[in-house]
Specification:
39% of the residues lie in helices and 18% in strands. With 384 residues, it is of the alpha/beta class. It folds into two domains: 59 residues, DNA polymerase, domain 1 (Orthogonal Bundle); 317 residues, Alpha-Beta Barrel (TIM Barrel). The chain has a ten-stranded mixed beta sheet with strand order 3-4-5-6-9-10-11-12-13-14, with helices on one face. Strands 1-2 form a two-stranded parallel ribbon. It has a two-stranded antiparallel ribbon with strand order 7-8. Strand 3 and strand 4 form a beta hairpin. Helix 7 runs parallel beside helix 9 and helix 10 packs parallel to helix 11. The longest helix has 19 residues. It is elongated and about 70 Å long.
Length: 384
Amino acid sequence: MTANLLDYDLEGLAAFCERLGHKRFRAVQLFRWIHQKGVARFEDMTDLARDLRERLPTVARIQGLPVLAEQASADGTIKWLFDVGDGNAVEAVYIPEDDRGTLCVSSQAGCAIGCRFCSTGHQGFSRNLTTGEIVAQLWYAEHELRRRRGTGERVISNVVMMGMGEPLQNYHALVPALRVMLDDHGYGLSRRRVTVSTSGVVPMMERLAQDCPVALAVSLHAPSDALRDELVPLNRKYPLRELLDACLAYLPAAPRDFITFEYCMLDGINDTPQHAQELIALLRGHAGRGVPCKLNLIPFNPFPASGLKRSPRAAVKAFADQLNAAGIVTTIRKTRGDDIDAACGQLAGDVLDRTRAAERLARRRERLAVVRVHRAERTVEGQA
């Protein structure tokens, strides 16, 4: 089978070209054609050597993901559903704002973490995406948006790995994808504008700090181990003390001098003044010096299987005010794209065969959350 060049960062593409008898500068040319210009036909890459253009179709391809569906929200948010084969699909979401355009990218088909408040976790885990499948979401969105706007200028300024899946449980595919996003010959995004969100896979946080430190967002959601064990089952493996230690260890390499903590607001579960006080004590008192951080409060997006409710607006504001008064910078995330199920925690990847998907979902829900977490832990330990 021919190689999909979306699977390669620049170093990988240089090695590929070297095997074909061509020097590194040819790989740079090829990389620019693919990522900066969005060209998928080798014959259109006019400054490549003729013999390379003629050879490439026999050994390589540039293969994106088929688009199964597109939905546009009233607020300008766009959600794409991509086919990744075998009845699986993943979603990416473009969120336009006045000063930036953000693409939320998926790293797995489904998710093994099983957080109570996340509909993606409730659908279970199918498989990791390849590097090419991660990159393909950005490749398609960037160049499709340019085409629609009639511009050659960059549209997507920020990428957040906050779509379907736990990025750090797909580490070996994630890091080359991040390098493509950051490379000046690719998308040229700054490290501050690429964010990896994690539920707390501590060993991979440590590796990311060494291999490709980008902005980090940690899904916290609770001020105590007892509550976080219920909401984020991975906490049973990596409890809060270990997680916050890993956050402190990440900061020297990070492009920002703080960690972003995500906190989904659940009515009567984690949103009381007492919870806020516990959270203040946790974040300001850890390791005797606290964790430099910003807190992002996320309104819960309900779905039937969760059994949870969104915190009232007044409770969210009071929670934020209490944290801000204690010196912890706290913001409330705007809900974007919720009319097309594109908001945080709603990406569930509808597939074409809804009957088969429902049957598969029912079987997966029969498994205990602990079983799903054990499978995730084995994956992480195998990658370490």
